[in-house]
Design a protein that fits this description.
Layout lengths: L1 H22 L2 H16 E2 L21 E3 L5 E5 L6 E3 L12 E3 L4 E4 L13 E3 L4 E4 L13 E3 L4 E4 L13 E3 L4 E4 L19 E2 L16
Parallel strand pairs: 3-5, 4-6, 5-7, 6-8, 7-9, 8-10, 9-11, 10-12, 12-13
Antiparallel strand pairs: 1-4, 2-3
The chain binds 2-acetamido-2-deoxy-beta-D-glucopyranose (5 copies).
């Protein structure tokens, strides 16, 4: 009798733990880990990342980080923070991130392919850094992106045609890099002027004869 009660109690506890695990916000911890991985890879002479403490329950109390009501990170605001070092692939583990603002720092190295996993991203501002290597094709998966500013870095290679599929894109600045090859002209790219691409080693855009456009009044 006693034994069977103990057995039943054990099962109840096991079920309870399993249910808890299923519904606990596991993401809070992995998001803190992702941001801590970034902190660990950056030099931070002005100590702007001092509050990014991996022992906290979630990263929502970190300075320069904003979360939604479910304690999931939606913004990282670290423009003009005098940071140097490299970005980390773990940044792709912030599923609700909408604003990644890292402009005007001294960040070098590549843009991780994993940034393309941030499918809720609205703004990717990495301008005025020392980033090199290609613009990842995976950025074409950012189908909610409105602002993509990668200007004033040392990015090379071609402009991924996948970017033309981002119909939400409103502001694109790839100027002042070392990009080569053709500038796509279809999809969202039909709305961007040469200013978006200035000061690269891109092929010159073909010049079309001027045609009267009904949208000229805009
Ligand atoms: C940026 O950091 C460097 C050290 O890496 C320091 O010499 C410089 O004063 C800092 N600049 C600002 C504006 O804080
Ligand atoms: C980058 O670092 C250099 C010196 O290492 C410093 O003079 C410059 O102000 C830094 N740039 C930014 C945007 O912090
Ligand atoms: C994140 O992106 C990388 C590289 O693009 C990919 O290999 C990986 O499967 C992605 N992870 C998730 C969870 O989507
Ligand atoms: C970006 O780079 C260009 C060319 O080097 C330079 O003229 C411009 O001042 C830079 N922009 C900023 C905001 O520093
Ligand atoms: C633009 O053209 C390229 C091929 O040149 C294609 O891969 C891409 O999907 C096109 N974009 C759109 C939005 O149709």
């Amino acid at each position: 009798m006693d034994r069977s009660i103990v057995t039943i109690l054990c099962w109840v506890i096991v079920c309870f733990v399993l249910v808890l695990e299923r519904f606990s916000p596991v993401s809070a911890n992995s998001e803190g880990d992702a941001l801590y991985a970034l902190r660990s890879n950056l030099a931070d002479p002005n100590n702007v990342l001092q509050s990014w403490d991996p022992t906290r329950v979630n990263p929502c109390t970190y300075l320069h980080v904003t979360c939604n009501i479910d304690n999931s990170v939606t913004r990282v605001d670290l423009g003009n923070a005098n940071l140097s070092g490299q970005l980390v692939p773990q940044l792709g583990q912030l599923p609700n991130l909408q604003y990644l603002e890292l402009y005007s720092n001294n960040i070098s190295g590549r843009i991780p392919n994993e940034i393309g996993n941030l499918t809720n991203l609205v703004s990717l501002d990495l301008y005025l850094n020392s980033l090199s290597g290609p613009i990842p094709d995976t950025l074409g998966r950012l189908q909610r992106l409105r602002f993509l500013r990668l200007n004033n870095n040392s990015l090379s290679g071609q402009i991924p045609v996948t970017l033309t599929t981002i119909s939400t894109l409103q502001v694109l600045d790839l100027s002042n890099n070392q990009l080569t090859g053709r500038i796509p002209v279809n999809g969202s790219f039909q709305f961007f002027t040469p200013n978006s691409f200035a000061n690269n080693q891109l092929d010159p855009l073909p010049v079309f004869p001027p045609t009267p456009s009904p949208s000229q009044g805009l």
